[in-house]
Amino acid sequence: GHVKLATKLSSRRGGVLDLNKLTSLANAPTEALAGFKGSLLLNGLTSLSDVQAEKLAEHRGSLLLNGLTSLSVTAANALAKHAGEIYLQGLTSLSDDPCHLLLAEKLAAQSQNFYLTFLSLKALSDALAEVIAKYPGSLDLPRLTSISGSAASALARRKGWLSLDGLTSLSAVTAEALAKHRGQTIQGKPSFTPCQ
């Protein structure tokens, strides 16, 4: 039943296939849905197995998985190879593992000269900041409450608008690094911590 329905849905060409109400998905329908050529909206999924990620990586078109809060390194590696645009606004963290950094690079590259937002990202490592900093465009990190001096230096080198309006504290070193940013705006309402 589910596989036949998924196969029928995926045989449509182009357009948008909105399956945002799905909260889970078995492997067989995932494989069938990967054949859809168009925007595939699966924002209701809160988890994705490595096998499912590998299948969805074969999809051609935009892939929206904004309900995911985390990804294994294997899943991240698979999704980094997805040929179309991919949206993962729910991710709360990305590690310094090369597979997570590869996925971050894909996300940053697809948003180059446009708008990159990590709506849910709560931490930004120095390595992740370096990856993101390679690409120009607007960057929004609203859930970030603190940032290291090295990460701030990397982001300050980025060209484009920078929003860090979730920052709640900022050291003098980090403030000095961010002050070198040449983009349009740096937002935030932090309390400043003097040098020790």
Into which percentage range does the β-strand content fall? 15-25%
Number of strands: 10
**Mean pLDDT metric:** 87
Head-to-tail CA distance between termini: 65 Å
Shape: elongated
- Please state how the strands of the largest beta sheet are arranged side by side: 1-2-3-4
Kindly provide the radius of gyration, computed on alpha-carbon positions and rounded to a whole number of angstroms.
18 Å
Percent in helix:
25-40%
Largest sheet: 4 strands, parallel
Give the SSE string: HEHEHEHEHEHEHEEHEE
The parts where pLDDT drops under 50 for at least 5 residues are 189-196
Structural class: alpha/beta
Specify the number of helices.
Answer: 8
What's the quick description here?
The chain is α/β, with parallel strands linked by helices and 196 residues long.
Structure description:
The chain is an alpha/beta fold and 196 residues long. 35% of the residues lie in helices and 17% in strands. It contains 8 helices and 10 strands. The strands form 3 sheets. Strands 1-2-3-4 form a 4-stranded parallel beta sheet, with no helix packed on it. Helix 6 links the parallel strand 5 and strand 6. Helix 4 runs parallel beside helix 5 and helix 7 runs parallel beside helix 8. The C terminus is likely disordered.
